Amino acid sequence: MKNKIAVGIDIGGTNAELGWVNKDGKVLHRQIFKTADFTEIEQMVETIGNAINAQIKNLDHCEILGLGIGAPNGNFYKGTIEFAPNLHWKGVLPLAEMFAKKTGLTTKLTNDANAAAYAEHIYGAAKEMNNFLVVTLGTGLGSGIVVNGNVLYGATGFAGEMGHTKTMDNGRQCGCGRLGCLETYVSATGLARTTVELLAQSRQISVLRDKEKITSEDVFLAASSGDELALKAIKYTTTIFGKHLADYVALFSPEAIFLTGGLANAHSLLIPHTEEVMNQSVLKVFTNTVKIYPSALLKENAGLIGAAAMLFDID
User: Fold this and answer.
1) Are residue 173 and residue 85 in the same domain, yes or no?
2) Quick one: pLDDT at residue 217?
3) Which residues of the chain register pLDDT less than 50?
4) pLDDT of res. 137
């Protein structure tokens, strides 16, 4: 009997990762591409599609069930990416159809955060949960919502766009064109932006003043060494995040909230204050009913695994 595997692609603002995944959620082979290298969507489909087709030739001992894609602003119903703020390809892109034509594989597409939530449910810390929230913290901020054991897509297929809920009137400019979206404050880019603003507003001593271009990783390294300005930037970020999560707790009462994505690797600096603010802000009946955890798949690519898992039809 041939081993059953599926192909997964996780498309982010920085990287696009390709992987071959078995039914146990193990990534057997992976390749990483720089998203910015593809000025046109057709270039990405051609390059990654060729990589898939080349690998298929080496896997005649396996049954390839198909291809799953997780992408920002991915529409599960239509197989399209639509007006993704953190991708430089604009408009409505029929990506599932394009990859199916290139590879000949059955292709499914979903929002990258929904793919991460599905992976957490099947392979991660939410195996025994039916109501939970996964928040992806990277270039932007996304969320996958699971209610009664099912990923919530809503009427349009776009449910879960937490990053583009408004947190401040006349706030920071977002890639979506609006002002004050949550991801402009709570994301890797948002944290770096907050730090730059704090440096400009004060003369506080900080190791970050020597940096030509500040990244979120720089901020966390400085905070881990006790840098007061870096700690202030993180507190500002987690205060906004905690207040926002309180609204989500009130809306659908999850059993837990899981953080994934590059920024979530600093969960020890993020979670305690976020959880404290969330419990201070939430309706009293929900106080201390929800814990925030790092994803159990944090060292893996949950979006990649979840995208591939869509082809397994796991109950």
Assistant:
1) no
2) 96
3) none
4) 95
Q: Are strands 3-11 and 15-22 parallel, antiparallel or unpaired?
A: antiparallel
Structure token pair of residue 294: 């790092």
Structure tokens at 60: 């005649």
Asked whether residue 212 is domain-assigned, the answer is yes
Q: For residue 13, what pLDDT is reported?
A: 84
Same domain flag for 284 and 189: yes
Query: What is the model's pLDDT at position 277?
Result: 98
Count of other CB atoms within 10 angstroms of residue 270: 24
User: Do 249 and 304 belong together in one domain?
Assistant: no
- Indicate whether 59 and 162 sit together in one domain: no
Is residue 173 classed exposed, middle or buried when 0-12, 13-18 and 19+ CB atoms within 10 A define those classes? Answer: exposed
Place of tokens 């939430």: 282
Contacts of 104 (CB under 8 A, 6+ apart): none
User: What's the maximum distance between 2 C-alpha atoms anywhere in the chain?
Assistant: 67
| Cα dihedral 20, 101, 151, 115 in deg (nearest 10) | 40
State the Cα–Cα distance between residues 28 and 5, nearest whole angstrom.
Answer: 9
Are 6 and 313 in contact by the 8 Å Cβ rule? The answer is: no
Total domains in the chain come to 2
Range of the domain at 64: 3-118+300-309
> pTM higher than 0.85, yes or no?
yes
For the sheet containing 62-71, what is the strand order?
Answer: 27-34, 15-22, 3-11, 62-71, 107-111
- What is residue 60's predicted lDDT score, i.e. its pLDDT? 75
Q: Considering the domain boundaries, does residue 158 fall inside one?
A: yes
Rg of the chain, C-alpha, whole Å: 20
